[in-house]
């Protein structure tokens, strides 16, 4: 195996493992959405508070599936710059969301009522139960996804610039 194939395979494997932090993010966001909208997901998608979160969550999964496909299909060398740019945008959004949510979590005290919690984190409605554990799970998922994106950027950069196969190099020299 050539260096490009090895790094492409390693990148694909790490991308598969990145689905685990994505699942933590999904679980936290889904339960948080359920708490603030009473389980009405059609109404939740109209909520400005969480719309960016759902967009970034969907983009992260789509991106991971494209990256896994490209890595195992040996297209990483051709698509490395696209993947790195996509990672940069999605990672910036993940950092923005986690920063925003951490600030909201810090504004809540343990002895606050649900109405006070809703006001502290900027909700338009009073949640059914305390949404703080789910908000913390969402933040943990965003931080883990951003961290894995950082590692994927390094692997994509190495795999995308690795030496080509010998046959390709000989054909290019001829």
Structure description:
The chain is mainly alpha-helical and 174 residues long. The protein has one domain (3-161). It has 8 helices and no strands. The longest helix is centred in the middle third of the chain and has 31 residues, at 76-106. The protein is elongated, with a radius of gyration of 20 Å. The mean pLDDT is 84.
Summarize it:
The chain crosses the membrane at residues 7-25, 54-76. Keywords: Membrane, Transmembrane, Transmembrane helix. The chain has helices at 3-17, 19-37, 41-44, 51-72, 76-106, 114-121, 132-160, 166-173.
Fold topology:
Layout: H1 3-17, H2 19-37, H3 41-44, H4 51-72, H5 76-106, H6 114-121, H7 132-160, H8 166-173
Helix pairs in contact: 1-4, 1-7, 2-4, 2-7, 4-5, 5-7
Q: Give the overall shape, derived from the CA principal axes.
A: elongated
Low-confidence runs: none
> Averaged pLDDT, please?
84
Measured distance between first and last alpha carbons: 23 Å
The tally of structural domains comes to 1
- Biggest sheet details: none
Task: Determine the strand fraction and express it as a percent band.
Answer: under 5%
Number of helices: 8
Backbone CA Rg: 20 Å
Task: Give the oligomeric state of the chains in this entry, treating copies of one chain as homo and distinct chains as hetero.
Answer: single chain
Helix proportion: over 70%
Order of helices and strands: HHHHHHHH
User: How many beta-strand runs?
Assistant: 0
The chain-level structural class is mainly alpha
Transmembrane segments: 7-25, 54-76
Keywords: Membrane, Transmembrane, Transmembrane helix
């Amino acid at each position: 195996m050539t260096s490009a194939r090895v790094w492409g395979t390693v990148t694909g494997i790490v991308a598969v493992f990145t689905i685990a932090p994505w699942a933590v993010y999904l679980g936290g966001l889904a339960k948080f959405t359920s708490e603030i909208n009473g389980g009405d997901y059609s109404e939740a998608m109209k909520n400005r508070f969480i719309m960016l979160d759902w967009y970034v969550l969907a983009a992260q999964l789509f991106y991971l599936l494209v990256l896994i496909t490209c890595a195992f299909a040996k297209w990483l060398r051709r698509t490395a710059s696209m993947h790195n740019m996509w990672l940069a945008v999605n990672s910036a959004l993940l950092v923005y969301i986690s920063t925003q949510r951490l600030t909201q979590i810090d504004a809540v005290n343990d002895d606050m009522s649900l109405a006070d919690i809703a006001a502290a984190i900027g909700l338009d409605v009073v949640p059914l139960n305390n949404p703080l554990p789910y908000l913390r799970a969402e933040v943990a998922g965003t931080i883990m996804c951003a961290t894995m994106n950082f590692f994927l950027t390094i692997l994509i950069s190495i795999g995308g610039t690795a030496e080509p196969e010998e046959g390709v190099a000989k054909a290019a020299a001829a």
